[in-house]
Amino acid sequence: MNRFVTAERALRTAAPYGLPDAVRRVLAEQYAARSVELFMADYGLSVLQPVSALPHAPEPLPVHDSAAGRAFGAQEPIVERDREEELVRVHLPVTVRGDRLGVLSVTLPEGELAGEGLTELSEIAEVLAHEVAVAERDTDLYLRARRKDRLTLAAEMQWQLLPGRSCSHPEYELAAQLEPAYAIFGDNFDWSATEDHLMLYVTNGMGEGIEASLLTNLAINALRNARRAGLALADQAALADQAVYAHYRGRCYLSVLMFDFELATGRVRAVDAGSPQMLRLRGGTVESVAFDAQLPLGMFEETDYVIQEFQVEPGDRLVFVSDGVYAVADPKGEAYGDAALARAIQSTRLLPAAEVPRAILRELSGHRGRPVPDDDALVVCLDWHGR
Fold first, then answer.
1. Which pLDDT score, from 0 to 100, does residue 275 have?
2. Is the pLDDT of residue 251 over 90?
3. Contact 252, 223 (CB under 8 A)
4. N or C: which terminus of the chain carries fewer CB neighbours within 10 A?
5. Alpha carbon separation from 77 to 33, 94, 113, 304, 354 (Å, rounded)
6. By the 8 A CB rule, do 49 and 146 touch?
């Protein structure tokens, strides 16, 4: 049995909480690894947190200024060499279907990278990512490692509601980020893919704290319930509208922008039920794409929603934002607005989709002039490749 198969089997048979120990043990046995450390990206995407028991855990690593952070951002192995001891430290992306979870850092003799060594280690990190994604159903170990600060209860509810932070398929790449990561309360996103369709929801929450999170949870689960019943987009909106109205009787409502992308053709059906906005980067030009605004979910009883259609082309980048982005004011009271947002999209055009939401939110923080926002901010980026 070759050593990669041995490593793969060790990870697939490990207990959910035992994956870090299993990968350390098998890499030491099969690849003569001197040290092995699993790091998870924190909720704010600012640091890589070690999955180790204190007091022996290494320090968190910055995403922006470390070799491990470069591996995380570039999604490629980064090799650091120690010529004196003939050792190398390899940082490997831990990613599952485009969802970037963290980095596996391995110190081992340089000769172990010869031949297929580096490829095998990269594939082991990918297997580890799959196992971590499954293990999170049964243990809090990896979710605890993702937080450098305590989450508010509302933020805990919102992060648990999300499908992931990024994903990639042959037809598209998709990524999103929420701010403030540790105190988000209402904004949200959701997506689901089949062989032929991608459905995407971008939600702008109403209210603050737990009440905002409860409202969003109700609406997203109502949309999922309708989607999983096979209903069309307009009927999903109508069902969620009824669910929210039945509970709140119009006192609270939710803005959502809903899309159904046809993967084979690029034809898109959309329902605009509120305030999130979409901008498109095509051929070097950024433009706002407006839809006929319809009532938010739950504002009135039995609202009928109408589908609109548009076309995406290979090479298009779509950026979706909540009002916590385009309406945020600087210290002088000037709103961020379409012009500044267009500049931010232009300045990030060479970044992969997974890096764009975080980069735009960093620029937004500079405009705001203070570290903590007054409102939730959500950025979603979709790069369309087509079939």
1. 82
2. yes
3. no
4. N
5. 16, 10, 12, 51, 17
6. yes
> Is the pLDDT reported for residue 371 higher than 80?
no
pLDDT tens by residue, 296-343: 999 999 899 999 999 999 999 999 999 888 887 777 777 777 788 999
- HEC profile of the chain: CCHHHHHHHHHHCCCHHHHHHHHHHHHHHHHCCCEEEEEEECCCCCEEEECCCCCCCCCCEECCCCHHHHHHHHCCCEEEEECCCCEEEEEEEEEECCEEEEEEEEEEEHHHHCCCHHHHHHHHHHHHHHHHHHHCCCCCHHHHHCCCCCCCHHHHHHHHHCCCCEEEECCEEEEEEEECCCCCCCCEEEEEECCCEEEEEEEECCCCHHHHHHHHHHHHHHHHHHHHCCCCHHHHHHHHHHHHHHHHCCCCCEEEEEEEEECCCCEEEEEEECCCEEEEEECCEEEEECCCCCCCECCCCCCCCCCEEEECCCCCEEEEECHHHHCCECCCCCECHHHHHHHHHHHCCCCCHHHHHHHHHHHHHHHHCCCCCCCCEEEEEEEECCC
334/183 Cα distance (integer angstroms): 24
pLDDT digits 0-9 by tens, 40-63: 999 999 999 999 876 677 899 999
Q: Do 166 and 98 contact (CB within 8 A), yes or no?
A: yes
Q: Is a pLDDT exceeding 70 seen at residue 375?
A: yes
Task: Output the pLDDT for position 167.
Answer: 96
- Mean of the per-residue pLDDT values for the chain? 93
Residue 159 vs residues 138, 182, 227: alpha-carbon distances, Å: 17, 9, 20
**Cα atoms in the 13 Å half-sphere on the side-chain side of 41:** 27
pTM of the full predicted structure?
0.94
